[in-house]
Amino acid sequence: MTTSFTVPAIAAERLPELLRGMPKAELHIHIEGSLEPELIFALAQRNRVAIPYASVEELRSAYAFSNLQSFLDIYYAGASVLLTEQDFYDMAHAYLARAATDNVAHTEIFFDPQTHTARGVAIDTVINGLHRACVDAQKQWGLSAVLILCFLRHLSEEDAFATLEQALPLRDKFIGVGLDSSELGHPPEKFAKVFAKCRSLGLRLVAHAGEEGPPAYIWSALDVLKVERIDHGVQSVHDALLMQRLAQDRIPLTVCPLSNQKLRVFPDLADHNLGALLDAGLVATVNSDDPAYFGGYINENFTQTFAATGLTAQHAYQLAYNSFEGSFIEASQKRVFQDRLQEYFARF
Ligand SMILES: [Zn+2]
């Protein structure tokens, strides 16, 4: 389904205000990537965990990555301060408070249990803390929030199976599974069996593909893993047939512009292909990925990308519309959000 709503003319200088205020869904946010240096330090102190940085400033200045791997190294170091259920709650609560301010109406949050279980933290601690924060977000801000469990692709499929088994007693606290971490050298098909199992259990399926990896990874995420949504997917522009497939099957892409800039997928934001993806009729969306590390939450992703690429208010509407369309909420609730969106643009 696509929209035919024509956005009234809006002056370029009012675009940032429009983008910040519009209701939107966030579909690609790693909760461990929302850990701000201040919270890392506070948790390190609370839990008496030693971290290899002397100050918040030193930690923040270490965020000068050159590629996905150098980012992941510091990301896992930051996650090491998370030990108790309250730590996971506090991390998620901080992100959700921020998302509410950014007018996020619905969010689907990734979490990486293996990052924590490998350190001896029980999976119940992780999931219960995150889930409690999601429940409270609905009460506190009317923000709907759900969880998606991600398998780390640099680990084995056996490890993913073991993680799934540990998580299944908490099945009612997450809606689906994803695949993240180091993409190159770890094609989706490595996880064919565990995704087939998850599919049989009725879990929703997504996977990172085509961030740094080739279009072939997007094909195998779709055809082997049978995912319903592609995380990133920006490399699809190098394969015309794939672009057709994504448009035809209305496969959402969860694009993360500031992450792409920081990890040098597109060193200059002005060269980002978000506009090309939209103009080709793809269900592209804007998301923050790891906002504490990549220089901005969802509204920063919108405002900086629009300023750099010259996207219009019509694109803004389409992106927000797509974010609800591409979400895993019920069709009737999607329509409620999309009506609210249209009303916002008509009134602006
Ligand atoms: Zn990601």
TrEMBL record:
- Catalytic reaction annotation: adenine + H2O + H(+) = hypoxanthine + NH4(+)
User: What family does the entry list?
Assistant: Belongs to the metallo-dependent hydrolases superfamily. Adenosine and AMP deaminases family. Adenine deaminase type 2 subfamily.
Binding-site residues for substrate, renumbered to this chain: D290
The enzyme class is hydrolase
Question: Residues that bind Zn(2+), according to the entry?
Answer: H28, H30, H208, D289
Against PANTHER family, the record matches this protein to: ADENINE DEAMINASE
**Per the entry, which co-factors are needed?**
Zn(2+)
Residues under site feature: Important for catalytic activity? H232
Active site location: E211
Q: Which GO terms describe its molecular function?
A: hydrolase activity
Tell me how the cofactor is bound.
Binds 1 zinc ion per subunit.
The residue ranges of the Adenosine deaminase domain are 23-343
Q: What is this protein called?
A: Adenine deaminase
What EC designation does it have?
3.5.4.2
Q: Which UniProt keywords apply?
A: Hydrolase, Metal-binding, Nucleotide metabolism, Zinc
